[in-house]
Amino acid sequence: MKVVAMAGGTGSAKLLRGLSRLPVDLTVVANVGDNFWAYGAYVCPDVDIACYTLAGKADPRGWGLEGDTFEALGSFASLGLETWFRLGDRDLAVCMARTEMMRRGSSLTDATDRIRRSLGVRCRVLPVTDQPVETRLETPLGDLHLQEFWVRERGRPAVRKVRYEGAARAKVAGGVKKAIEGADRVIICPANPVTSVGPMTAVPGFIGLLSRTEARVVALSPMVGRRPVSGPAGKLLRATGVRPDSLGVAGAYSRFLDALLVSERDAPLKSSVEELGVKCALTDTLMRTPGDEARLARELVEA
Ligand code: FO1
């Protein structure tokens, strides 16, 4: 079975680990909206956490490499740079290698492929597009990059508006188009609908691909009640006028979604989700152990 997993950050990475243990042909399509320039290097957090997790090298905190050191960061600080973005030394090396490959003419897709192979990752990891797309938030502190909002400002500023800069000029990467067209299942990981899935569906043609594919499109909701399992999804769903719960997620994805796995605590939402034409299955959606990751991966493939 050919499975395409659309992935964002931490929650997605856990599910990818579960999916990678199933006997399926897995392709990961990663968000690029939170890509960020730091210390002269092009950082691609969602591409990287997918690769690090699938290589068994991710730090349990949800970003970066396990056991990494922060010597370069100390040097940047003593040189007077702001160091709120804590990029580890080996992580910095990966990002610098990517920057160098791209400076010499590689696409982000090709650079990602070299990186995932060097880490020993067997499945394909594809950035959704090779053009820059940047999630930017309008706040009382001004127009902020997602990393400035989430890491520097700790997600505190009010958010008035979210936009995906560059998305209108971007193109779905060729490998992504082929993977979705040839898939049996497209799985939307429990990613932030606004900052992880939104930048992908904002790329012209992506929603058409999801709507037209013969693959079943299934998602695992990142919300339990009105709270996200992690990250700022609740606040950002509200800012974009979407109900901050699984019904809101179903509505946001209803144009292309066949089934949604929802927390059993949200059983009262089931009939409203199904009125949107989306099959709703109830389960324990939290991933505390590798057993949970594998169970949810299986349930999604079978949904
Ligand atoms: N998240 C943090 O909360 N603090 C950090 O200092 C931080 C550094 C960092 C470095 C590299 C990287 O790939 C990700 C990093 N993240 C950090 C995670 C990142 O901000 C977001 O969680 C993702 O962009 C969301 O997908």
How do you describe this structure in short?
Helices cover 40% and strands 20% of the residues.
What do you see in this structure?
The two termini are 14 Å apart. Helix 1 packs parallel to helix 2 (45-54). Helices cover 40% and strands 20% of the residues. It contains 13 helices and 14 strands. The longest helix is centred in the first third of the chain and has 15 residues, at 89-103. The chain is α/β, with parallel strands linked by helices and 303 residues long. Strand 6 and strand 7 (142-145) form a beta hairpin. The radius of gyration is 18 Å and the shape is globular. The strands form 4 sheets. It has a 7-stranded parallel beta sheet with strand order 5-2-1-9-10-13-14, with helices on both faces. Strands 7-6-8 form a 3-stranded antiparallel beta sheet. The protein has a single domain (2-137, 164-302), classed as 3-Layer(aba) Sandwich (Rossmann fold). Ligand FO1 is lined by residues 8-9, 34, 43, 45-46, 48, 63-64, 85-87, 91, 147, 150-151.
* Count of DSSP-assigned helices: 13
| Strands in their spatial order, largest beta sheet | 5-2-1-9-10-13-14
Largest sheet features: 7 strands, parallel
CATH architectural designation: 3-Layer(aba) Sandwich
What is the CATH fold-level name?
Rossmann fold
CATH homologous superfamily placement: CofD-like domains
Separation, N- and C-terminal Cα atoms = 14 Å
Mean of all residue-level pLDDT scores? 96
Share of residues in helices: 25-40%
Bound compounds, each kind once, are: ligand FO1
Computed structural class? alpha/beta
> Any idea of the CATH class?
Alpha Beta
Report the strand count. Answer: 14
Percent in strands:
15-25%
Low-confidence stretches: none
